[in-house]
């Protein structure tokens, strides 16, 4: 029993850790790294640095995604077998998994990262948009928003599961 509890804690620790790295890393990129390297003074050296940061972070995200798939599947199995889950729990979990799938899609999937496309190679529609709008609709912003919703759903799952345990 104690061993199982230790495994449960370890699993949640890994799952939560991956959430901190991916979503926390995305916010750090949006709030600290990107403003710094998009400043008007940014020279070619900065742009190269940004490409390097993005490629490196993509590798970390791939690792986080595999961690989520494995730890999330075990967490799901554990919850579904130890607690009699209500329909609410299943619905919230399905929405969460769909949103995670969308985040993985936005993040460029699980393939190895290609070097970011140079501005000239980006779609014309993208290049024509005003800077602020383009920045707000960037993949990183969408991942930060959807990721925050996924974190909220994780909290809801926890409360729904705890309520189910209490009423059993
Ligand atoms: C396919 C992928 C995923 C699956 C199947 C999955 C499944 C689960 C399950 C079943 C739980 C336990 C909820 C409960 O307390 O009953 C959980 C917790 C959690 N999930 Fe996920 N998850 C996935 C991806 C993600 C992602 C991408 C994030 C981050 C954005 C995330 C963040 C969390 C957090 C913060 C918790 C709470 C951990 C805790 O209470 O210790 N999950 N997840």
Question: Gist?
Answer:
The protein is mainly α and 168 residues long. It has helices spanning 2-37, 44-82, 87-106, 124-128, 131-136, 139-167.
Secondary-structure blueprint:
Layout: H1 2-37, H2 44-82, H3 87-106, H4 124-128, H5 131-136, H6 139-167
Residues 12, 15-16, 19, 23, 68-69, 72-73, 75-76, 79, 93, 96-97, 100, 147, 150-151, 154, 157-158, 161 line the site of protoporphyrin IX containing FE (HEM).
Can you give a write-up of this model?
α3 (87-106) packs antiparallel against α6. This protein starts with a helix and ends with a helix. With 168 residues, the protein is mainly α. It has one domain (2-167). It contains six helices and no strands. The model has no long low-confidence stretch (mean pLDDT 84). Bound molecules: protoporphyrin IX containing FE. The site of protoporphyrin IX containing FE has 23 residues, from α1, α2, α3 and α6.
Span between termini: 20 Å
How does the helix and strand content classify structurally? Answer: mainly alpha
Give the low-pLDDT segments.
Answer: none
* Major beta-sheet overview: none
**What is the succession of H and E elements?**
HHHHHH
What portion of residues belong to β-strands? under 5%
Number of E-state strands: 0
Q: What number of domains?
A: 1
| Mean model confidence by pLDDT | 84
**Treating each run of at least 4 consecutive H or I residues as one helix, how many helices?**
6
Radius of gyration: 19 Å
> What small molecules does this complex bind?
protoporphyrin IX containing FE
Note the overall shape: elongated
Percent helix range: over 70%
């Amino acid at each position: 029993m104690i061993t199982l509890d230790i495994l449960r804690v370890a699993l949640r620790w890994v799952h939560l850790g991956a959430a901190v790295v991916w979503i926390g890393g995305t916010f750090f990129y949006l709030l600290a790294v990107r403003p710094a390297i998009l400043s008007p003074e940014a020279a070619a050296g900065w742009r190269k640095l940004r490409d390097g940061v993005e490629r490196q972070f993509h590798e970390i995200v791939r690792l986080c995604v595999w961690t989520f798939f494995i730890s999330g599947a075990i967490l799901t199995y554990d919850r579904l077998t130890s607690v009699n889950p209500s329909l609410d729990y299943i619905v919230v979990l399905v929405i969460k998994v769909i949103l995670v799938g969308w985040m993985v899609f936005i993040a460029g999937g699980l393939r190895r990262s290609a070097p970011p496309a140079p501005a000239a190679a980006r779609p014309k529609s993208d290049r024509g948009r005003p800077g602020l709008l383009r920045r707000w609709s960037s993949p990183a912003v969408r991942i930060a928003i959807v990721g925050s919703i996924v974190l909220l759903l994780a909290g809801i799952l926890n409360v729904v599961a705890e309520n189910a345990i209490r009423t059993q």
